[in-house]
């Protein structure tokens, strides 16, 4: 299994203001589903942040997303380790397969792969 990217999630009700603020640092909007917006550097597209007030299909907002090449293998490894799965593995209508797991420090990690 390989990590493709890691994206921190900023919990915020101020999406427009966040877009403008991070725009001053060179970020541009690359995705906006209305409930989650992702900003990226145009010169280094893997440098990203997401802004989210609430998650559309999950009970809580994750602290970060980790995109992997094999989400099923990641799910199996984390379950086998005894890690706390806080949102089950599922396919989402926007083209990702994902689950949430709590890390040892209490942070919620959205582990995903694009289909």
In the CATH hierarchy, what is the superfamily?
2,3-Dihydroxybiphenyl 1,2-Dioxygenase, domain 1
CATH domain class name: Alpha Beta
Class from secondary-structure proportions? alpha+beta
The low-confidence parts are: none
Proportion of β residues? 35-45%
Protein name: VOC family protein
In short:
With 115 residues, this protein is of the alpha+beta class. It is 17% helix and 44% strand. The relative contact order is 0.20.
Walkthrough of the structure:
It is a single chain. This protein has one domain: 2,3-Dihydroxybiphenyl 1,2-Dioxygenase, domain 1 (Roll). The mean pLDDT is 95. The chain has 115 residues and is of the alpha+beta class. An 8-stranded mixed beta sheet has the order 2-3-4-1-5-8-7-6, covered by helices on one side. The protein is built from 2 helices and 8 strands. The longest helix has 11 residues.
